[in-house]
Amino acid sequence: MKKRNFLVAQSGGPTSAINATLAGVVEQAAISGKVGKVYGAKHGIKGVLEDNLIEIGEMLQETHAMLRLIHTPSSALGSCRHKLKSAEDDPATYKAIFDTLARYDIGYFVYIGGNDSMDTVHKLSEYAQEQGIDVAIMGAPKTIDNDLYGMDHSPGFGSAARYIATTFAEIWCDAKVYDYPTVTIVETMGRHVGWLCAASAVARKTGDAPHLIYLPEVPFDDNKFLEDVKEQLAQHPAVVIAISEGIKRANGKYVNEDNGNAKVDAFGHKHMGGACRVLEDLINNNIECKVRCIDFSLMQRCAAHLASPVDLTESRILGAMSLSRALEGVSGEVSVLTRLSDSPYRVEYSTVHATTIANLEKAIPREWINARGNFVTDDLIRYVEPLLGVPFGEEGCAKHLCF
Amino acid sequence: MKKRNFLVAQSGGPTSAINATLAGVVEQAAISGKVGKVYGAKHGIKGVLEDNLIEIGEMLQETHAMLRLIHTPSSALGSCRHKLKSAEDDPATYKAIFDTLARYDIGYFVYIGGNDSMDTVHKLSEYAQEQGIDVAIMGAPKTIDNDLYGMDHSPGFGSAARYIATTFAEIWCDAKVYDYPTVTIVETMGRHVGWLCAASAVARKTGDAPHLIYLPEVPFDDNKFLEDVKEQLAQHPAVVIAISEGIKRANGKYVNEDNGNAKVDAFGHKHMGGACRVLEDLINNNIECKVRCIDFSLMQRCAAHLASPVDLTESRILGAMSLSRALEGVSGEVSVLTRLSDSPYRVEYSTVHATTIANLEKAIPREWINARGNFVTDDLIRYVEPLLGVPFGEEGCAKHLCF
Q1: Residues A126, A165: Cα–Cα separation, whole Å
Q2: Does the interface predicted TM-score (ipTM) exceed 0.85?
Q3: What is the CATH number of the domain that holds A228?
Q4: What average pLDDT does this structure show over B15-42?
Q5: How far apart are CA B125 and CA B120, in angstroms?
């Protein structure tokens, strides 16, 4: 019997581990011995829609290249943010996608992505079943935000968390070098959930920063914030604050909304400044000290040189597992991992239905944030630390040598 | 004969290598066998002025701690930006400094810092000679800006250059992931000279970024800039631009001056936005594309996890050499290095008079910048690359695997 072909695609925001997942599926295609050609779709589902597929099976012949792929950040196949409508509302799109799959005789399709992409996996899988089309569609999870349900943590998060914790430890060394009062505000990604920002707390193992952490899970209050900063400045000459880009006031609005900071360009697009700039202004207008704003920007999701080896390994295995299940005929599911223990750190792998993940966002449990809402608990630190993949603080900053 | 004591202090902006220099002088104090106690002054010359000295000789007893100190960014002793007036204009300051040195029986003083600090070395050394005070005062150089005269390159630069080149390579992977036109502008430090920004060109070994580089050495022209960006966008969907914070227009003003972006806080201090924001507005108002601003901020000077092993080694040796010469009675000089060849990369060490360095800034030679003024030449890349201390691009991004 002729072996059917395999398609893989990547979607959503870049991470440092999404190419490890790609490597995992490509090597599993060879390991299984059950796959014909291996195709990659460029720019996610858009590439399937627009018949933009390339053969990538030869990649496996270059072992060094495969190793480098695992350490290359972002999506080697390109990505997209394409939200699929229902088959009822947009039959033409579904027809175009399955026409492409038929044209290339795709029997198995693994889609690597976040909660939107798992919605795509669900919809395509349901459509195939309804239409009697023989193609197994599986998801492999990724997102730096760590907001995916159905699994202990999201592949990609550990690497971003390692970047954030390492960089906070280094920034602390720098921020405290002069002997006058300073406040350094560092903004991390996290529009709806604060996991990335919270990961900064691991840096406390080698230094005093961050002193304060503000998350989207807790309403932000300007006056309480100023009180917190004054209290910290009374104890430390250099205060370092971690904020999530998505912190909101009690009225539900992001702190960078309604601040008169938005600019409109010549094309009519509105450009808002970050939350960091709003808090910088707040401090500048209320406390006499030097304030600095730092935005981790793309670095937090693409600093592959600080990728977590745990994250890369788990991401690779999850990719391989998604294809392995697809080859068994499973469809509409996503490979996930469950934590068995923190120390020693142990996980087990399984699959769950895509609807467990699709379109949902997992926030930090309130009990992992302190009562005042300006720091996280030790439980959260114990949860994050093994995901960094290296013993944090064994190298690097020597706090006791900073006199 | 009783051994005289030794004092070390650190000054100016942090680097990832200034603690390696500190480690070098502390270990040389032990190696020489000629030094009594080892003192560190907190916050540079301010600590001497204010009698804020601590004994740090015991640090050497912890070999692991010394190793960690070498990998700890910023100044473990704290820093200052204190410009010394002449002894004629401010005799009280000189008296206070030399009173402290006498009180602790300091026979040798090594000051680690940049061009301002080397001015301090010169002035204090001259004063001691004029007054017949027996103390040898030597400088050990550092600055990420690479603007020090009298040496091939500045200790601290190589580590910052490695951070910048690595991060540009990673940002390129991320910036090009979607299939619509984007411009990513990355601002590096460098108020007067463009070496840090120019180091981004090494990233071209593993990718296409940066596409354009703008330096303080060449007058910035808004229209030429927009032409350059349009030309690059016509060839690449994702254009990555490196700019130095100190880029100036032909009228000699920084691009972030006179743009109406400055804010005045409640205490009357003026806060200017970065050059990056000005260019972001310029593109938003003239070209239809997505623009992102990235500021490498403190990370470029404190990312010790990416410190150059070449930089750390040279920095340590230069520190040790400064004390070694001081013990021979040399004063008012600075340890430096001269490059013998690029490949193999070879250097030799010597000392020069502090006035060779004091208050001067070495710019990029015009012939190392292209005629259009929007990129650097291969000569500059050949100069920078060995300073990174690792073969760039052997790991990390696999350009040929990004389809």
Answers
A1: 41
A2: yes
A3: 3.40.50.460
A4: 96
A5: 8
